[in-house]
Specification:
It is a single chain. The chain is of the alpha/beta class. It is 13% helix and 19% strand. Strands 1, 2, 3, 4, 5 and 8 form a 6-stranded mixed sheet that branches. Strands 6-7 form a two-stranded antiparallel ribbon. The termini are far apart.
Length: 197
């Protein structure tokens, strides 16, 4: 399965137009070649590389599988990178992250800090619904949609190891509609997602 890559600063991806011809946004390559040891965290966070896509299905994928798929998509798109964690996003530790999600897809993150149900007992089948940043919404460190269940998703690819070992989202990481949310109904909401607190 091909991974669609959103790249930054210049070169068109060889996969452009093959996997999602109707995205309607530019895909460019991040030409920055890191000159430091990528295994060490940046002093103030991690470095944004670009976006990749992955196929989410929380009904059949465990939380571990979703994390693995996001990390594999990142590593394929930008060798040496990984998927950003929800905690890094909430703490605004992703240096160079664009101000807006212009990928045309809901953007998800790996654990810790990526689900309203994190820390609860895991389901016997499948995994948790994930927090996401809606297409066109600001990347401002706040999640306004806790209902990512199943569809093609984008993920932020970053260089550097996770530096925050804490589990779970930060207090106040999620805002209900009307608390600065951009509006609109969550994509892919199912009965399980609607019942969540």
């Amino acid at each position: 399965m091909e991974t669609l890559i959103e790249l930054r600063h210049g070169i068109i991806s060889p996969d452009f137009g093959k996997s999602a011809p109707n995205l309607g946004h530019h895909q460019t390559r991040h030409n920055h070649q890191p000159s430091r040891d990528m295994a060490k965290p940046l002093p103030d966070g991690v470095e944004f590389a670009g976006h990749a896509t992955w196929p989410q299905n929380a009904g059949s994928q465990t939380n571990q599988e979703m994390d693995r798929l996001m990390n594999e998509a990142a590593a394929k798109a930008f060798p040496g990178s990984r998927a950003a964690t929800g905690r890094e996003y909430q703490k605004k530790l992703i240096e160079g992250l664009p101000s807006t999600n212009d990928t045309g897809m809901y953007c998800t993150f790996t654990r810790p800090g990526n689900s309203p149900r994190e820390g609860q007992a895991e389901p016997t089948t499948g995994g948790f619904t994930l927090y996401c940043v809606d297409p066109g919404s600001k990347f401002d460190g706040v999640f306004r949609n806790p209902h990512a269940v199943a569809s093609k998703r984008s993920v932020c690819c970053v260089y550097g190891e996770p530096e925050d070992p804490d589990d779970g989202p930060l207090p106040g990481a999620f805002r209900e509609e009307g608390e600065g949310a951009d509006g609109g109904e969550a994509e892919g909401m199912d009965a399980r997602a609607k019942e969540e607190p």
